[in-house]
Design a protein that fits this description.
The protein has helices at 14-22, 24-33, 41-52, 69-78, 89-101, 140-150, 170-180, 188-197, 209-235, 237-255, and strands at 59-63, 81-86, 108-112, 125-131, 151-164, 200-207, 259-268. It is α/β, with parallel strands linked by helices and 269 residues long. Strand 4 (125-131), helix 6 (140-150) and strand 5 (151-164) form a beta-alpha-beta unit. The protein binds S-adenosylmethionine (SAM).
């Protein structure tokens, strides 16, 4: 049994994440979720932006920006300056291409780099932002301390992430994290503790796990009913079977209250 507490990590590194997002996985996630690769899409981005109070004067750093869907959405909607940081060259290239096409380049910068060693000076941004991606990062303490460093005084950290919610067997823990290539997931309380340790004041901490389970079923139906043929045609039956098997495990674990999603907002003090 793996307790709902820290300690265990799978041996995934930035190289594995890179390989995965350079390959078909990035494409598959976009097929399932859209170019904003997180649960709830545009609606969730707006919720977080409104909670933070983003406006045209806010400078935002999106850590693990992938295709830049939320980056462009924020720039387009609020007129703010946004920087996207991602470790996968393919994601950065695609994000730049889409941004140029939308003529949003004057508001947006993309930077290739690791969230654990952010290529920015201290006190650069008003908001450090993340959506459903920090589960890939191998050291959440270091990630949050980097966020703290690059934030201006009284800056805001705002993110959603996939989290561990309940205890699970060793096999379940390995299967769930292994399928996604997550080294481990934080818990909601774990994130709160890290934020406090790094001297953030907690402004919001919300468990969104019921909504996460609902979305898992939506993605499973989409995969089986609408995307199956396209995936088999493009990537073969084995890829479809692997995706279906992995997603089924996530649906079950979400229904059983073992995995979920949370939202946290904190202020640098
Ligand atoms: C699920 S996607 C992010 C989705 C994005 N936040 C959105 O809402 O559209 C995960 C991304 O995290 C990036 N990533 C994972 N680990 C990283 C790290 N340590 N540093 C920078 N990027 C990382 C991957 O390259 C990938 O593009």
């Amino acid at each position: 049994m793996v307790d709902i507490c820290k300690g265990k990590k799978l041996d995934f590194t930035i190289a594995d994440v890179n390989e995965i997002y350079e390959g078909p996985v990035g494409v598959l996630w976009e097929m399932l979720m859209g170019e904003q690769i997180h649960v709830g899409g545009e609606k969730e981005t707006d919720i977080l932006a409104n909670k933070v109070g983003i406006n045209k004067d806010t400078t935002v750093l999106d850590v693990c920006s992938a295709l830049g869907g939320p980056v462009r959405h924020l720039a387009r909607k609020f007129g703010c300056k946004v920087t996207g940081l991602d470790a996968a060259q393919k994601m950065i290239n695609e994000a730049i291409k889409r941004t140029e096409k939308e003529k949003l380049s004057q508001l947006i910068t993309y930077k290739l780099g690791n969230a654990l060693d952010m290529p920015f000076k201290a006190k650069t941004f008003d908001v450090v932002w993340g959506q459903d991606a920090w589960c890939y990062v191998t050291d959440k303490d270091k990630l949050i301390s980097e966020a703290y460093r690059v934030l201006k005084p009284e800056g805001i950290i705002a993110f959603t992430d996939w989290i561990q919610v309940g205890n699970m067997t060793e096999q379940e823990w390995n299967d769930l994290n292994g399928f996604m290539a997550f080294p481990y997931m934080e818990t909601l309380d774990g994130y709160e503790q890290i934020l406090k340790k790094m001297r953030f004041e907690i402004l919001e901490k919300e468990d969104l796990s019921k909504d996460f389970a609902r979305h898992c079923h939506i993605y499973q139906s989409l995969l089986r009913d609408e995307l199956k043929n396209a995936i088999i045609k493009e990537y073969g039956n084995e890829m479809f079977e692997a995706a279906d098997d992995g997603l089924s495990k996530w649906v079950k674990a979400a229904d059983e209250g073992k995995v979920g999603r949370g939202r946290l907002i904190g202020k640098k003090i």
